[in-house]
Fold this sequence. Notes:
Largest sheet: 7 strands, mixed
Structural class: alpha+beta
Number of strands: 9
Distance between the termini: 34 Å
Radius of gyration: 17 Å
Strand content: 25-35%
Order of helices and strands: HEEEEEEEEE
Number of helices: 1
Amino acid sequence: MKRIQVVVAGVVVAVLSGGAMAQFVKGNEAVRVVADGTKKVDTPPTAGALLTKPCPADNPACSGGGWKMVETAAGLMECTEVYARPGTCRASTYGTEKRSRVWVVKTGGEWKHCTLPDLSKGCVSIKSLPSPAVQ
Length: 135
């Protein structure tokens, strides 16, 4: 009986630490801590972008191309677009639900979307088509 308890506890710790570790993309320049210790988060700029009417996150038809995982001031969000405009994002379900996703990051001063939460895994400009993966 004790052996089973130890194994279950180990699984819970592994799941909890795995989820917490994957809730951000290491090296994402959009997220930074400034000198006073506060966290500053940038989202892709809308200036110069050809924008349509925002597609709300609560509309199931709006996530057809996969959820865009965007770090915002409110934390990691699932958005229907890379710009994270009001109403287009909802709380992240990463780690609890499998969905088609791409990760929106800033690296080398450029905005990109990555197939996985890893800067070395299939990152392309947000101006090109992403390759979402079920995760």
